[in-house]
């Protein structure tokens, strides 16, 4: 049983905690949080042990009726691995804490790549994280791009990727962010940082990315062009992507024309928080002109990195290979077609029954 | 003096009327409108003769205190040329009216290309409209793309254009349109119709376009990639675009990061309605990677086609060549750096003084 601590219990941390808690081969030691806000109360209701991320603020929790299990030092000491889900830049400040306890740690994509031994995407480079002490799960957008590039590269070869990332201005709860009525090139300079970030996963990939921010909160949308090394058909690309469990190819006819309906679809299916862990690619959008492949995909910034964090744990501790880890993660998180949240329709229960630790 | 009638007095029509009215070689015969709304009252205050676009509704105008000069038939009969600025699809219904009076007409980009003898962009194909009876000024987005493609093609050769059009959901006054909080691939199918529309101007151009709609009203933003036929530098491309009078290269340091500040900039400069007739290209965004050129540009959907309509009039009646027509249009509309709305800083007054009809 892998003992996992989660440091930071916001948008990503609370989802990582739930995902870890759902895995039969993992145990959630507890979560660390800076203050007793609504999310802290939810954690307590879920039975998660709460640790004070800032020891001096520990009394605030008891004043608010939350009994803490200790301070973050104790969480780090007790865990086999810590998933750092603190805001960008705080992860870097926390690294010495993990080093002092000799506890392996996973950082999020908001940290710079040099914080870790390896930048990670399960589909693309699982093996590079095997045995690593420090791993960085790349950002939501980089994860979304990596999941598409990996199968394309393996199947056809990739000459060049050009992607325009139409990014949501902020998450639904980030009510101080904008823009309200504007379309912002962001950054104005080209290329954006996303291309180089994808290159932390695919070092030899030729990729140019352009970023914008718009007045929306639900998901990012990518306008993606990949010049392939071979002649292909749109139907072949579509089948390739449909075979990826972390890519949901939206069928025509469902009337899903944007992120709003995707979220409704996921909520209707009973998914926790309406999460869409998969890249959501509009099947109808997959097009090939010469060797240029195009598609639109929506990326749920709050949840697509969650399964990657779970897989990073197994890779670092070398307890399962890529295929087995992704299979377990997907099954227990519930990844698959949103209308089938159990994932059972895409799993082979016979195979599933075999592993003793699963 | 060219007698011009404007049929339709909404977002485009009112701007075309003002632009025509500002040209010393043109006279606005009048404008036709379906109903006496706020725009009709503004037209009367400006001294424009009002014609009832639907004869049966003529009494509505007098009931509302607006004395009409006649009905649309009379306007068409009196004009040397009519600019049809009615909503998409209505222009096609009006064509027989223009034919019955043997009056040349200009249609807008919302009509299908086969409505006219030629699809028109002054910078790209002025000469093709010389002597034409029916001309279609292409849409705002196609105009914006054509103004960039033309100089790039002439200077470097263009191998392929790939553009993602992040489109405003509706104009500021179109308060029944959306989306409110979403990023919609629109159309979901790739390519969008914009690429084929650009090919009505550049028949041999290889171009793929992708369209989206977002919750913004002020301007469209294009994420543009052009694979050139020669090796170039970003600085060279920038200079090339700065030499185009209908392209405004936004300098670094002005703090203009989006459409909101562009509109404020134009309004502060005293431009009518805060119009931005030029493509607004972020100078800082112009980048070259290999033979791939990238840039971001904002396109003011309400006004960028206005100077093209004025030039189309001169081309069809063959009263000025391309260079002379564009010079006159730009001078009298006020096109140039937004902080210099007179355009005087970019005009040679000596040359200007010479033409008798100007």
From TrEMBL, chains A, B:
One of its GO terms (biological process) is glycolytic process. D-glyceraldehyde 3-phosphate binds at residues 139-141, 194-195. Residues 326-358 are annotated as: Disordered. The keyword Transport does not apply. CDD domains: GAPDH_II_C (cd18127), GAPDH_II_N (cd02278). SMART domains: Gp_dh_N. This is Glyceraldehyde-3-phosphate dehydrogenase. It comes from Halopelagius inordinatus.
